[in-house]
């Protein structure tokens, strides 16, 4: 206990250095794709070197997907080997128009650090690296050993990160136990993940002119009926949950924890198979019966359900749609079996006890399964227990309390928290004159349904308004753009490749560098470089390119206005 208190005091005293490390880590861009992590791993290497900790860099294919690995042996004798695993790659930032600040800024404002990947999962990975550094310094107090794996490629499956390391040396980088700090929240410990089965389905039928449906129903109608039958059949399959998990999921506190962690209603599908139709393409023209329809299915299988069961069921459905030809192709790289570790492993008890001691008054975290996937699967497939316990994701206006703070002092504003699938949304939409939907685009349709029913005007931020017809405003932005986001995107520095050299332009000088760019007669456009273009050379496989510039076009006058606003602060 004294050693634990001493460690906690040392960690608390080092808070400034830890924050500085995380800030530099976030500022080192590592989007995947393309998956290049060398900048971020250089920051990790610098931190470990400052602590005199030896480490290795592993770049399997020499393409910049760099892994940082290190391990140390406790001096007090033999014992279990614990691996701390976190990924370095993060999701890409898109075109940047939706960001309120540079996504790689690492800005610290009001006690919060901003940037792409802060939550998923650079905060978690940084915490593991910091923990490893402090354990390394105290290895004379340890029995057993500790390993650190700060890996690349997690966002695209882990083939050249975690999976590779375990295959090369299971004992050294697999160990006896893995701990990961993915953003599961401090209220839960994740011990299992659903399996995934990705399928590309092709339906072929006879084609004809639109009126001649007596000759053929066409590929799209056939695909629609087939999809309905697959969803109904697969989602009705019985599930053979392990007894231990079935009993665990029946506990009221576990049900509450699952819905609180992943949204109301999650408990209804966490132990059930689900089918999502992710993409669908077909047809050449509206007045033609299509010959081909191609769609992709994302099937999630709970613990206890194997892909063979699903595929065999689908095979029995296909003959029902003859003479249509239906072929199914598995996307092997994106398909993974379910995986889980035992619920009552000793580390679960240790995590509960430590979490409770650090958060007096809070409940101990509850073990629950995850809906999505992580690198834990590679450990569990190798019969190595793996658990997730990480920071809580917090986003502006995601919680009711933060929305209430925004609404405070505004007599006409009221904050409520509702799920997009909640029937109560009907009432709230109907009693207003206008709904502005800022939810992720996949949920717009649900809001539109209520708006139509309530005869309520509806506006979305998606890119759906024509231009330039609706750009008759001083900034010449479409209404469906976020003016604040678009303006802030003009305040971000740019990096590009020209004549084989990397050119950097500061945010203060960027708008001065805008140049005339002819596209169409009658339109006067100015062009300027947008964010970091250099990684696209690798992403698009054009290593021989001497010039790579990702740019933005704005109407003449816009950059000058943007520069004036920047100068005004």
TrEMBL record:
Signal peptide (from-to): none
Residues covered by the Peptidase M20 dimerisation domain: 192-320
Domain Saccharopine dehydrogenase-like C-terminal: 425-569
Pfam family, one: Peptidase_M20
Coiled-coil intervals: none
A GO MF label: hydrolase activity
PANTHER family, alphabetized: ACETYLORNITHINE DEACETYLASE, ARGE_DAPE-RELATED DEACYLASE
Similarity section: Belongs to the peptidase M20A family.
Protein's name according to its UniProt entry: Peptidase M20 dimerisation domain-containing protein
Organism from which the protein derives: Fusarium oxysporum f. sp. conglutinans
């Amino acid at each position: 206990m004294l050693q634990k208190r001493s460690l906690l005091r040392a960690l608390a005293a080092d808070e400034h250095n830890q924050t500085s490390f995380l800030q530099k880590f976030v500022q080192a861009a590592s989007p995947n794709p393309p998956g290049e992590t060398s900048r971020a791993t250089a920051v990790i290497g610098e931190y470990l070197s400052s602590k005199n900790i030896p480490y290795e860099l592993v770049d399997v294919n020499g393409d910049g997907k760099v892994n940082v690995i290190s391990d140390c042996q406790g001096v007090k004798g033999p014992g279990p080997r614990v691996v701390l695993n976190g990924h370095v790659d993060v999701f890409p930032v898109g075109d940047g128009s939706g960001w309120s600040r540079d996504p790689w800024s690492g800005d610290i404002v009001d006690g919060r650090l901003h940037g792409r990947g802060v939550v998923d999962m650079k905060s978690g990975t940084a915490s593991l690296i910091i923990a490893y550094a402090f354990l390394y310094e105290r290895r004379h107090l340890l029995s057993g050993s500790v390993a650190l794996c700060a890996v690349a490629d997690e966002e695209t499956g882990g083939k050249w990160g975690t999976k590779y390391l375990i295959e090369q040396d299971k004992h050294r980088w697999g160990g006896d136990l893995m701990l990961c700090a993915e953003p599961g929240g401090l209220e839960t410990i994740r011990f299992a993940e659903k399996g995934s089965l990705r399928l590309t389905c092709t339906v072929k039928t006879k084609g004809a002119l639109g009126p001649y449906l007596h000759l053929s129903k066409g590929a799209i109608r056939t695909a629609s009926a087939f999809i309905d039958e697959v969803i109904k059949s697969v989602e009705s399959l019985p599930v053979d949950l392990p007894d231990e998990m079935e009993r665990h999921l029946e506990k009221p506190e576990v049900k509450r924890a699952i819905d609180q962690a992943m949204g109301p209603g999650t408990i209804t599908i966490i132990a059930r198979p689900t089918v999502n139709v992710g993409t669908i393409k077909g047809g050449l023209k509206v007045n033609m019966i299509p010959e081909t329809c191609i769609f992709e299915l994302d099937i999630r299988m709970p613990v206890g359900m194997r892909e063979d069961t699903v595929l065999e069921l689908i095979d029995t459905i296909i003959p029902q749609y003859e003479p249509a030809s239906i072929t199914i192709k598995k996307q092997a790289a994106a398909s993974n079996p379910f995986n889980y570790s035992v619920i009552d492993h000793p580390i679960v008890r240790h995590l509960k006890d430590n979490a409770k001691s650090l958060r007096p008054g809070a409940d101990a975290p509850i073990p629950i399964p995850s809906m999505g996937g992580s690198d834990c699967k590679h450990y569990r497939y190798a019969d190595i227990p793996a658990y997730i316990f990480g920071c809580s994701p917090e986003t502006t206006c995601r919680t009711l309390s933060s929305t209430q703070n925004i609404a405070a002092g505004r007599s006409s504003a009221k904050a409520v928290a509702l799920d997009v699938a909640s029937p109560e949304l009907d009432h709230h939409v109907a009693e207003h004159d206008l709904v502005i939907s800022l939810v992720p685009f996949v949920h717009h349709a649900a809001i539109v349904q209520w708006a139509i029913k309530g005869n309520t005007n509806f506006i979305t931020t998606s890119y759906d308004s024509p231009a330039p017809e609706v750009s008759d405003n001083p900034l010449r932005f479409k209404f469906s753009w976020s003016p604040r986001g678009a303006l802030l995107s003009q305040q971000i520095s740019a990096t590009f490749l020209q004549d084989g050299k990397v050119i950097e332009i500061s945010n203060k000088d960027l708008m001065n560098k805008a140049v005339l760019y002819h596209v169409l007669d009658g339109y006067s456009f100015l062009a300027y470089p947008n964010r970091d273009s250099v990684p696209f050379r690798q992403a698009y496989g054009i290593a021989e390119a001497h010039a790579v510039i990702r740019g933005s076009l704005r109407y003449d006058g816009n950059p000058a206005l943007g520069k004036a606003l920047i100068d005004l602060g």
